[in-house]
Amino acid sequence: MDVSIITIGDELMIGQVVDTNSAFIAMLLNDNGFNVIHKAAVRDVGQDIISAIDAAKSKAPIVLVTGGLGPTKDDITLRTLCQYYGCELHFSEEVYQNVERIIMSGSRVMNELNRNQALVPDNCVVIQNRAGTAPCTWFERDDHLLVSMPGVPSEMKWLMTSEIMPRLKQRYKQDLHIRHKTFWVNGYGESALAIILTDFENNLPSFVKLAYLPQLGLIRLRLSAYASNEKEALDSIAIFSKELVNLLDTHILAEEDKNLEVLIGEKLRSLGQTVGTAESCTGGAIAALLTSVAGSSDYYMGSIVAYDNSVKHHILGVSNSDLLQYGAVSQQVVEQMAQGALSVLGCDWAIATSGIAGPGGGTPEKPVGNIWVAIANRDTVISRLFTFSTTREQNVQRTVNMSLALLLAEL
Questions:
Q1: Residue 359: is the preceding peptide bond cis (ω within 30°)?
Q2: Which long-range contacts (CB under 8 A, 24 or more apart) does 185-191 make?
Q3: What is the mean pLDDT of residues 356-380?
Q4: Coil, strand or helix: which one is 262?
Q5: What b/e readout covers 378-410, taking b as 16+ CB neighbours within 10 angstroms?
């Protein structure tokens, strides 16, 4: 069953807030056999919302809307829906009690704006929002369904998971079974990988697709099957996944749709091992990413941001003579940084980075974008020299990605 998604809010249009809602909704729908074919973001302007609804309905029988349900004057979604469906707002005692419960549980005081959130359209199904004060509304007209949810991500997620998805599955027959398999691939650019996989792609049946999802320095490949029954979808994914693995061999880092920092954490936890970082040019970015994972204290020991050479020498034990002879951006120094981190942090694995992120600081011998990365354990140390771009932000992110890829490959 096809679905359109509309997100509402001026903050989305000016880039002040990133639209994560439609991504969550689309993934949940896809996992449950609903096919998202259209997405739109619109301003908090009545006519724009109406036009977006008309466009969405012309493409799909189900339209899911988020945003514009707050208590302030700029939140106009419910009033616009009343205009669209020819209905009026009325006071709902049931909704009011839920709003009051939410407000009082946070030790806040009810006011008139809070009370107004109990005003709901009089000709729709109202779904209580147990995670917040803005109710969800469900309109069914002329073989079309429109569901309006709050834009607060935590409230939308609760509603989609607990209320909307179960109702959609009950209301609509599942005529499409969608299954995905994701691969992390290292060592190829997007165009080079596409050339290698030309025959593989050409031989895929029409209901199986291959998508390239490039990141800086890495590529995720997503194999997708859209079948009339679950067995056909699963069997197809299994057959073509095996063929893909045989083709790419050691270039495949992982076969899960999880971020590298999550995969590394899972691997370290399963091995009962730990990791630490010694960062120069990345300035703690690797540490921040590894510790963004819940439970990372199980395996992450700490970080030394050794930006100045004196820190490299006095804390990590890098040889002063090597710093003078080879420079901070060198194989000798980055390997000693990694080995020093093992000792100082008491970890099983260490990542070290040293490079010229830019935009200044480069020389003809060591231009901007020259980055050394080292991975060490108690037995060995490996290092790689990368030559990236002249853009500082990209150089840092590429270094982070390559560092995690190298560690995952070693693990």
A1: yes
A2: 185/218, 185/219, 185/220, 185/221, 185/248, 185/251, 185/252, 185/253, 186/218, 186/219, 186/251, 186/253, 186/405, 186/409, 187/251, 188/219, 188/251, 190/214, 190/219
A3: 94
A4: helix
A5: eeebebeebebeeebebbbbbbbbbbbbbbbee
Buried residues in 312-348 as b, exposed as e (16+ CB within 10 A): bbeebebeeebbeeebbbbbbbbbbbbbbbbebbebb
Using DSSP's 3-state secondary structure scheme, residue 276 falls into: strand
**pLDDT-above-70 percentage for the chain:** 100
Look at the alpha carbons of 356, 362, 363, 364 in this order and tell me if their dihedral is positive or negative.
Answer: positive
- State pLDDT tens for residues 211-232: 999 988 899 999 999 998 889 9
Residue 287 tokens read as 């540490």
Surface-to-core class of residue 154, CB atoms within 10 Å of its CB (0-12 exposed, 13-18 middle, 19+ buried): exposed
Residues near 40 by beta carbon (within 8 Å), at least 6 away in sequence: 4, 5, 6, 7, 52, 55, 56
Q: Phi/psi at 268 (nearest 5 deg)?
A: -60, -40
Written as one string, the DSSP assignment of 110-171 is --HHHHHTTEEETTSEEE--TTSSSPEEEEEETTEEEEEE-SSHHHHHHHIIIIIHHHHHHH
Arithmetic mean of pLDDT, 305-317: 97
CA-CA-CA-CA torsion sign (33, 37, 41, 42): negative
406 pLDDT higher than 80? yes
Pairing mode, strands 35-42 and 2-8: parallel
CA distance 317 to 121: 69
Q: Which segment of 46-60, 69-83, 184-198 scores lowest on mean pLDDT? A: 69-83
